[in-house]
Task: structure prediction
Amino acid sequence: MRAEMRERFLGGRIVWAAFGAAPLPARMVEFMESVLDLPLHDAYGSSEGGGFMIDHRPIRPPVLDYKLLDLPDLGYSRIDLPHPRGELLLRSESVVPGYYNRPDATAEVFDEDGYFHTGDVIAEIAPDELVYVDRVKNVVKLSRGESVAPSRLEGLFSTSEVIQQIFVYGTSDQSYLLAVVVPAQEAVESVGGDPAVLRPRIAWSIWRLAAEADLHAYEIPQAFLLETEPFTPQNGLATDVRKPVRHKLQERYGARLEALYTAMEAFGGDI
Result:
């Protein structure tokens, strides 16, 4: 079947393949590599500068240099252990010189030394080996000061066989996370659509993956809403490349999630 997909639907002449826009779950990478019969490369770049990295390593040229910027309000620093973390700033031959007739916007994205602010939180695993953590604007700081990267957690939990999609939610007023879960169709069918059976299966899967990834307790959603409608470009909850549209998800589910926080506090307070 996969050989047929490769030869018949994809033409059978692919010699190199990559993904971008957002990290892919390991299960999806494994599947695509089995279909393509090729390694799937992790590409990183931006509209302003084109490609910057392949497989977590800067492309030289065009990249000339990079550095990490401390984000103390979000809890990221170049002295973090075991790896330095911070916003990735780049000097590159391919970066645009600025925004047309927008000196204010240009000043916001370039520092005084000409480094471009990518807006991405990066961990430097080794010299010239950089791993994406999250967008600066997507990082949530909880009430006890911990910084959480929701998209990283969503990528992890979406590898569950019982979860099709997940939206992780938190605020600076609370010390723990909640989530919205779209269950996998096979999981729904296997329990006859009974949420009383499906909920504990999803919860167990989340905790199992969290334990395997050695997550902190505050990185694990303590409760979740079940949603039967997937996040799609058609309903505005995902982009054309299936990235979650976070502000739209917050608009759709924010009130219900805040109500869930209130209900949980009524049954024992902060957990």
